[in-house]
Amino acid sequence: MNPTARTSPLPLPDHPVLVVGATGSIGSQVVRALLERGAPVRVFVRSPQKVRDLPPEVERVIGTLEDREAIARALRGVHAAFYVSPHDAAEETLAQNFVSACEREGVRLVFSGVHADGKNRLSRLVMRTVFGLMMPHYKPKLRLAERVRTSRTNPVVLIPGNYFQMDEVCREELLAGRYPLPLGLVPRVDTRDVGEAAARALLDPGVPSGGYALVGPESLSGEQTAAHWSAALGRPVTYAPGLAVTDAIFDRAYGGRKALDCQKSYRMVGKVKVRTSPADLAQTTFLLGRAPRSHAEYAQETAARWQAETPPTPEVRKSAVPVGAS
Ligand SMILES: NC(=O)c1ccc[n+]([C@@H]2O[C@H](COP(=O)([O-])OP(=O)(O)OC[C@H]3O[C@@H](n4cnc5c(N)ncnc54)[C@H](OP(=O)(O)O)[C@@H]3O)[C@@H](O)[C@H]2O)c1
Questions:
Q1: Which ligand 1 atom minimizes the distance to the CA of 66?
Q2: Helices 256-269 and 243-253: angle between axes, nearest 10 degrees
Q3: What does pLDDT average to in each consecutive run of 10 residues of the chain (326 residues)?
Q4: Coiled-coil region(s) at which residues (predicted)?
Q5: Residues 110, 186: one domain?
Q6: Which residues are registered as beta bridge partners of 238?
Q7: How far apart are CA 178 and CA 175, in angstroms?
Q8: In the chain, how many domains are there?
Q9: Do 150 and 172 reside in the same domain of the chain?
């Protein structure tokens, strides 16, 4: 890969770009970024109600990833497709349904998710094995990402760090002066940047197939993250990591399989120390055509948005999970 920054606007496709997971945290940002660029968009969703606020020109195909006929219908005549793997026990089967359909239709696939990248199958197998030992519950995610990476879809595999926006699950705790999610030192990224990088890969056939790290300007620790929130909120925020509190927060925010995935992930991200490499930053900058957003900026914007909203009532404040909760 020889990435060079994009300098001129891309020609828009005549055919729609399909987005799976359009109601989720990443898919919604992909839809936003595509619409901002004026691209025709089709979403594949389970519930029309959940996309009622999208502009009328966005095509809706209703169906589930379990339904191969619905997937075939959604892919008919598209320019390219975006896939994010849902938090689902059958995630490998769902991915297999979608990837095989893209292969049959000859559609470029842009995927965002957990992946252990490397130059060839052997180096990726070694990486996957090591990663799988550290994070057994990631094994299906790693296998499905490799299925995408080796598919006949001219695939682009986006490998985002921990999302900045995960912090918003602990809004009440942040407002009470604590940042409780365990973070050793990890690459983190703004989901808006993930959406914009995906839009580039979906619209620009010149983006080479392969794996691309998506990161912010620097890796962040829990202490640094808390310091950004402290500056943004204009009051002290202490880094106070706790697994029981973290588990309770994800149960409160999501429940089910998504909560379980997040709880397990934070058991790892609390322990590791991974510095953002210049190569990873270069890949992100290439896709975005600019430097990635910083967490400090994100925290400022989010705190300003919270402050503009109705202040939380004393009852809501009391819903903050107390330190030491089990
Ligand atoms: N959190 C992080 O920091 C992080 C970092 C890197 C990678 N990841 C990975 O990102 C992925 C999750 O992405 P996300 O945060 O965007 O997920 P999300 O917010 O939970 O969204 C999941 C989307 O998939 C849809 N969906 C679920 N099951 C479906 C089915 N059977 N058929 C069709 N659509 C279905 C959901 O639709 P409904 O609205 O109908 O439910 C929703 O739109 C995971 O694989 C995770 O491992 C997360």
A1: 31
A2: 150
A3: 51 95 98 97 97 97 98 98 96 98 98 90 89 87 95 98 98 97 98 98 96 98 98 98 97 96 94 96 98 98 92 60 54
A4: none
A5: no
A6: 178
A7: 7
A8: 2
A9: no
